[in-house]
């Protein structure tokens, strides 16, 4: 067997099989496992060293064993090494076990009575590999039928629907915590001083030219009063900054002008923190007074609960 896979093929083949298996089974993201996890590189290096050492040791043992052989044994070994793959003993034994073929000398015992224009038929047994596959197919069919037809197992369509539903849930959960995939439905108001400071810097760089540094309004509207053209609150302000203002005369879309969702969240939170700051000479109010309906509902519900408790 070794002559068909010499050492210069055998060692790289075994090494790369182990390497491929480790890359397949070790989850290393977008980087190879041997780069992300240094211990994998150490293991592969040690494995290669041991593999080469085994080959060197076996080669030395074979040379010693060859020197201890008698001339007859050396001649027999040379003869076996000269045989091709199909002529080798182990190959013949393997094929005999797989096919159970009879020697050509026994064809007379296998002849059947069928004879058509001199063509005769042999009564050979079915190959064992084919018989075993046939039995395995029967066993598989019984298990499959019982699993999906008798016990009502999930078929491929049901599994697909379940996986799609779970994927939808996973995506929604991911969107809640992924800053660069944030939208007006998932955005929340930031109140941390660090975030507001970052929002102020973004506002000064990109928004002060139209709204003034104090947000009192210039070309754009005053952002410190309670009047809003497209709605107030973090969700509406985030949506306006992201997608732009009114067509033809409103603010540009900052989504396409270099601001990421997390940056838009910070600048929107900073703008809302300026509510009621009363800058000097503010621009006249534009739009309508915006009332947070969700907050109103919460206050109403709280009032009802307090009234119920008083009655009790």
Based on DSSP secondary structure assignment, what is the total number of beta strands?
4
Please outline the major beta sheet. 2 strands, antiparallel
Provide the β-strand percentage band.
under 5%
Structural class: mainly alpha
Which ranges are low-confidence, i.e. pLDDT below 50, for 5 or more consecutive residues?
none
Mean pLDDT, as a whole number? 84
Q: Mind telling me the C-alpha Rg?
A: 40 Å
Helix percent band: 55-70%
Provide the succession of SSEs: HHHHHHEEHHHHEHHEH
Terminal Cα span: 92 Å
How are the strands of the largest sheet arranged? 1-2
Give the overall shape, derived from the CA principal axes.
elongated
* Number of H- or I-type helical stretches: 13
